[in-house]
Amino acid sequence: MSTPVIRLPKPWQLLAAALLLAAGRIALGADTGYPAHRPVVMGTQGMVAANNPLAAEAGLDVLRRGGNAVDAAIATAAVLNVVEPMMSGMAGSAFMLVYDSASGRLDALNASDVAPAAASLERFEAADMSSGLHLATVPGSFDAWAEALARYGTMGWDNVLRPAIAYAEQGVPYTNFFVEQIGFAADHFRKYPESARLFLRDGEVPRPGDIHRNPGLARTMRAVVSAADARDEDGRGAAIRAGRDEFYKGSIAAAIADFHALHGGLTTREDLAAYRAEWADPACSAYRGLNVCSAPPNTSGVVMLEALEILEGYDLGSLGYGSADYLHVLAETFKLVRADRAAWIGDPRLYSDPRDRMLDEKYVASQRARIDMGAAKDVPGSQVEQANTTHISVVDGDGNVVSFTTTMGGGTALFGTLVVLGDTGLVSVDGINWMDRDPDSINRIRGGVRPRWSMSPTIVFQGGKPWLAIGTPGGEGIWQTIPQALVNIVDFRMNVQQAIEAPRIRTYAGLDLRVESRIDASVRQDLSERGHRVTALPAWSQEVGGMNAIMIDPETGVLMGGADPRREGYVIAW
Prior knowledge:
Blueprint: H1 11-21, E1 41-43, E2 46-50, H2 53-64, H3 69-83, E3 93-100, E4 105-111, H4 141-152, H5 157-170, E5 172-173, H6 176-189, H7 193-199, E6 211-212, H8 215-230, H9 236-248, H10 251-262, H11 269-274, E7 278-280, E8 283-287, E9 290-294, H12 301-311, H13 316-319, H14 324-344, H15 355-358, H16 361-369, E10 388-396, E11 401-409, E12 458-462, E13 465-471, H17 478-490, H18 496-501, E14 505-507, E15 512-516, H19 521-529, E16 533-537, E17 548-552, E18 559-563, E19 570-573
Parallel strand pairs: 15-16
Antiparallel strand pairs: 1-18, 2-10, 2-19, 3-4, 3-11, 4-7, 5-6, 8-9, 9-12, 10-11, 12-13, 13-17, 14-15, 17-18
Helix pairs in contact: 2-3, 3-5, 4-9, 5-8, 8-9, 12-14, 12-16, 12-17, 14-19
């Protein structure tokens, strides 16, 4: 694919990086008035960050058993299917960045979903978009596992799926977060018998500490392992492909397609058999001497990079962390790039790649010039409020790095379509909900097209070496949350945990600006006087994401991880 350095930093940026990063050793944190409540987790042999400690531990166990970062990321993702099914699953959508230390290559994997061939604008003109199997798209997440495992992994399906199978069969406790999400979706689950049986207890929301089991998911994963075992003598690659084909062409595909046919879904066996994840060049740009790389379209990594390039023109440190001036610049930047996202981000197989024009130096300068420090602008753009995604960061002892974001979509009430696919234990991503019913939109509903997503798994390079793996859930907040964390680290010299915990903002369409209430009321008033329509969010709001990150000390190689208390994020190190 490509080496990670796509846009070389200018000499002044390199000097700025040296001064700001002090050789990258940002560990103590800065005095911003917002101290971290958790320590930075440190290790040397490997680290996994995920939105659930059981999932992170499963990934770390794979590292201890000799697996690499890709093996660990897939094991972690598989366990998240059990403990956090509202956010990710085998039948979800995904983007992954993989840095291979042996070759120095950085690859991006587009495993986003595809609208079924039968989908059309006319079919959805008056459709119920709240829930239902008709919203399902052809899933890509499992092909992300297969492609990454085949190209960069060292283990087979049995090793990476074993922890998830055990948890699905034996059960895991419903956490407070899990129960909260079921509460949001319960009324929808009651409409679908398979969903009610799996997630409710006698029609009611379970309690924290009750046991959740998913025997259907365990059978589905065992079918993958069995198919792989049948081809094991032909080598690891053939076995991985056999497991992959069981999902997209074999018994699992048949079960998915047959359930769709019986219950009004659009996905067919032909749709599943035709699906392919695609390797691509990452989207990369320079920020203060660092090279920031993320996923390319049809997702929003380039949108996040455009925001950083606009912000680079400001001395953010002198504006002061949490000041009205600083937050105003952030908000106005995010609104500008939102409009570009709506106009230019679509399926890369149908539209020209927009990264060159969005990251063009003159264009970025013209965007920056539109920002009026005294007044908020009403910039048109799309608005999606749900945030049903998860992120995994992994670094192994050999320096391989994975940044992996995966989603169920969940445009209305989490859990994708909210329909469990019969006995498979799977829920489908509701990708149709993330497409537009506007016939003029680049992202309009059409069969065979990948929806536009916000997932932006990111790896930051310093001196040509990976320095930071970072990502977050958060819907359209993803490409707003990641720049805020990077600015916190680079411009305000926060450590990785402090940067994640610090209060954040999120913009929506028009003048809508939402600010965590830890931001001082006088600052919120100042923003209102500039024209922002300010809403105070809870002090620790899931609306602004649930990110995690792993930093690699460039001198010692020590791994320093942080995870977001806004959800159930944990970092586990070796």
